[in-house]
Amino acid sequence: MSRDRFGDLVADVACCRRCPRLVAWREEAAADPPRRFRGEDYWARPVAGFGDPAARIAIVGLAPAAHGANRTGRMFTGDRSGDWLYAALHRAGLANRPESTRADDGLRLCDAYVTAIVRCAPPANKPLPAERDNCLPYIERELKLLEHARVIVALGAFAWDGTLRAIRALGAETPRPKPRFGHGAEARANRPAPVQRKRGEIDHVCVSPGGEGGWALLGCYHPSQQNTFTGKLTEEMLDGVFARARELAATP
Predict the structure, then answer these.
(1) Is residue 136 scored above 80 in pLDDT?
(2) Which of 11, 26, 48, 59 has the highest local Cβ count within 10 Å?
(3) Are 116 and 152 in contact (CB under 8 A)?
(4) Strand partners, 57
């Protein structure tokens, strides 16, 4: 049933046209690609999440790259950020191979699921607040379907903020004031207290998803070239985040 619902979500994401600016940009990028990608068929549609439906670790990015996931149709696939991310997931034992070049390359994730706050490539990698809000229901649906997820790794401040918004919309209790993003920052979103029903009402309690104790939110610098070329994010730093994510996912 969960896999069927993931399929429904993927189909809904792929046909979304809620944001005219993003629709125009993703299609313009596909129509006039860089020389190295000339002749390739671009996906040029919104991009759904990818990975293990039983994952305990969810990884959330900003949005597809114009000539990465917007071209290949899979999150963090076909660009330098994805090279760093999937190599780190492979080193952490969460991916069966270190490269992610195209949607049919045989890459599989184990105990990890990769997604993003915004599903279309935005101009200058800067979605508008309204575009973020249009997309948030998709990650809310994903987090509901990821019933075993215990840890959410947010790649960058935009993903950190969007994730907090999404889990609050699902009824989770998040710290106040809002936790600040930083590399290695941690926060916890607890399930709300059970709501007891009155006599005659359906006999159940209302809780949010996310495992017995809710979610642990873990911050990580985005593996963009701006961060990796300057040394702001190193392989050791990225490996440290995923080691911590595995530790938190295994914590009862």
Answers:
(1) yes
(2) 59
(3) no
(4) 112, 151
